[in-house]
Amino acid sequence: MTKKEERPGGLDAENITEATVENPPAVKKASKKEKKGACVYCGPNIRNVTKQFTVYAEGKIPDALALFIKEHPETKNLLVPIERFAEIRKRLQTVGTAEAILYNKIRSEL
């Protein structure tokens, strides 16, 4: 086994199976970067995955969202620390900002 396979609940590309996709564990372990505090998903609603402005305590995101981020890596840029929420929300409503463009790109892919 490699180190990645030994991690409990890890969802690396090498160890994602159909069973994992159909019955994902309840919560993904937070990465070192995400452990600092709560984060907010500021992207569009994703059916059966997450809703816009959902707060995740201690940066722990559900596996369904982690899998979506693997398929659409740009989505992680709309998962922001709660301290930046007000700023990002304003930028989502401002035409031409990187966040607004990214939001519309993700929404068009759904």
Quickly list its features.
110 residues, 8% strand
3D architecture notes:
- This protein has 110 residues and is mainly α.
- Helices cover 35% and strands 8% of the residues.
- The chain has one domain.
- The protein has helices spanning 3-6, 18-22, 63-71, 85-92, 98-109; strands spanning 39-41, 54-56, 79-81.
- Strands 2-1-3 form a three-stranded antiparallel β-sheet, with no helix packed on it.
- The longest helix is centred in the C-terminal third of the chain and has 12 residues, at 98-109.
Can you list the strand order of the major beta sheet?
A: 2-1-3
**Describe the biggest sheet?**
3 strands, antiparallel
Shape: globular
How much of the sequence is in beta strands? 5-15%
Please report the total strand number as a whole number.
Answer: 3
Spans where pLDDT lies below 50 across 5 or more residues: 1-35
Give, in order, the helices and strands.
HHEEHEHH
Distance between the termini: 35 Å
What is the helix tally? Answer: 5
Average pLDDT number: 75
In total, the number of domains comes to 1
What is the rounded Rg? 15 Å
The helix content is: 25-40%
Helix/strand/pairing class, anyone? mainly alpha
Lay out the secondary structure:
Elements: H1 3-6, H2 18-22, E1 39-41, E2 54-56, H3 63-71, E3 79-81, H4 85-92, H5 98-109
Antiparallel strand pairs: 1-2, 1-3
Short account of what is shown:
The chain has 110 residues and is mainly α.
